[in-house]
Amino acid sequence: MSYEELFNFLTPSLSFFNKKIASKDSLFEDVYEYALKQGFVTEEFLEKITLREKTFPTGISLGNIGAAIPHTDADYVKKEFIAVYVLDEPVVFQSMEDNTQDVLVTIVFVLGLRKPHSQLEMLQTLIALLQDEKVITKFTQLNSFDELKTLLIEEGDQKDEKN
Questions:
Q1: Residue 126 CA: distances (Å) to CA of 16, 26, 38
Q2: Which residues pair with 93 in a beta bridge?
């Protein structure tokens, strides 16, 4: 999946930049409230994403920056979406690799996908994106959805040129 295809899943009304969030649970409540109002998720979404994160943590340490890719089963998603949070202060997630380790996260992609194979492909694309230090540094400086679109298109074009 290309960065441009990834962009097509991103949801402007569920994208937040320089957002103040107190904790991982507050972030889940925030995305749930917005997503429920807009018809993206079922009533059970908040409980299920919180439970899944406890069982299968999604924090990823990227050197000086942390990211997370929380998600839940397709049963709790009515319309596909990816919510993006770029936080002004990090919140604690547990590491995907070792759930006893904390990761201070400033970039969060909340996946609401309906097809299991899409979820795997999306995770692979996001992890590839997150492993690009230059892109991640730019990501933390984003202030709007338009800036996010520009970044993904530019980086996708550069990635295509390399291949």
A1: 17, 23, 24
A2: 103
Asked if residue 92 lies in contact with residue 104, where contact means CB atoms within 8 angstroms, the answer is yes
Q: Can you give the CATH number for the domain in which 142 is found? A: 3.40.930.10
Q: What is the pLDDT of residue 130?
A: 85
- Expressed as residue numbers, the domain containing 73 is 3-162
The pair of structure tokens assigned to 142 is: 């984003």
**Structure confidence at residue 135 as a pLDDT band (50, 70, 90):** confident
In sequence order, the 6+-apart residues with CB closer than 8 A to the CB of 105 are 24, 59, 66, 67, 68, 87, 90, 91, 92, 93
Give this prediction's pTM. Answer: 0.91
Q: How many independent structural domains does the chain possess?
A: 1
